[in-house]
Amino acid sequence: MPKKKTGQRKKAEKQKERQKAINNAQYERGLDQRPCNHLMECDYCKRTQKNRAFCYFCNMIQRMPVCAQCGKIKCMSKGGDCAVKHAGQYVTGLGLVGAICDFCEAWVCHSKKCLQTHACTCPMADAVCHECKRGVWDHGGRIFTCSYCSKFLCEDDQFEHQASCQVLESENYKCLSCNKLGQYSCLRCKQCYCDDHVRRKGFKYVKGQPIPCPKCGSETQEVKELSMSTRGYKYGRQQIATGDDDDDEVDDEFSYRGATGGFTFGGYTLGAGGIKAVRVDDDGDDDDDDNEEEDEEDDDEEDDDNDEEEEEGDEEEEINSGDSDKEAEEDKSKKDISEKLQEVKI
User: What pLDDT shows up at residue 8?
Assistant: First the structure.
């Protein structure tokens, strides 16, 4: 029979496990708890940004540098761990620093442990935003990781990305390899897998641990535990104009015009059995309004001139018609007089 564990042995094993967890805690911390990703306010321009050796906005060196590995501001070590010896003195400021990290752009203290381990374990070694493709040196904000797909995000795109991250690439929840309903989903490659195809042959799975994705290797989760949605399409509608002249309606080369049986887009009018090119003036709306007003004034003047000419022609016609009527009456009266004279002679 195995020997029974004594209380002192149990206590020693628990302490050993606790020390192991403390040593591994620095590798399991999130980006928000890393000193190289802490918030920093510049001493000169007073702008908030990520912990940096030089201000992103004014390029000034900070008065109290913070180590990107251990997070300390003052070195109080009296042992032999310091690369720069300062026996019996506490060091702050530039006397604390030993290097600048090429990945996170932050100071690293002169401790030998920090100088040897930070460059290999820096969490921002490949921190490029998934949305805007910017690195740490290209923007002044902090770096985050998406809680669904675990990809790096900058401070400008983190909320927009996470709001649209739980969307599958397919149009349904079916397995990628068969037609069965997928029970597991990978939020990194945005695919669903059934219970048969999520497991690979020849791969040993740990009991109680999440099943890794067969495509990318990240952890999968059950679909029922997530608020997943599928890819959808949204189509725009053609708006039929009613003919009312409302001030709120915008009429430009990108608006739909349904009153004429078609619509205009990109400088061309589509519909009514053909395509017509629409001339678009790029000088501005003010020039268009001025040209329209001038054209309207010219049209009004031409209409007035035409109306006057028509009135003059009508008056001349009336005068000519009156003269012809008088001549006809005189000729008739002369004929009547001549006929009476002939009767009298007879």
Answer: 87
